[in-house]
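Thread: "does anyone have the structure for this chain?"

Original post by V.I.:
We have the sequence but no experimental structure in hand. Need at least a predicted one for the grant figures.
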Amino acid sequence: MSKETTSKKKTKRRLASFFGKIVIYILILILIAGIPFAYQFGHSIFYGSSVDIPPGRNVGVSIDENTSFGQLADILYGDGIIENKFSFEIQAKFFDIRMHTGDYIFNSSQTSREILEMIDEGASESNYNDNKS
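Reply from O.Q.:
Generated one for you, tokens below.
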């Protein structure tokens, strides 16, 4: 082998080592940034919080038989009743919620889990009215 061939191989190894280190550093940064996000997302699924403190505000929502949990999540998020559409849908699947049609009054001080329980029980036109103003 000539000195040129050996030199080229060393250069290739150095480049591979350099790019390998860059990839590892990027993966570490992604992991470090992802841990808080994963914790927050898991927390929002299992320990959902409310958007507002009591008394909150009431919002009427009609659910018909063609409404999906994705559509309902869009409506509730748009009305400021839930904080995260995706975690709402995950909760509905995870807790095996059955959607019942009807007219509902949700309050912004309810957690997403409480809202899902209302939908599962079919508690339409609920008397949940903490808004006594």
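V.I.: this helps a lot. Confidence is low (pLDDT under 50) at residues 126-133.
O.Q.: and Residues 49 and 111 are 5 Å apart (CA to CA).
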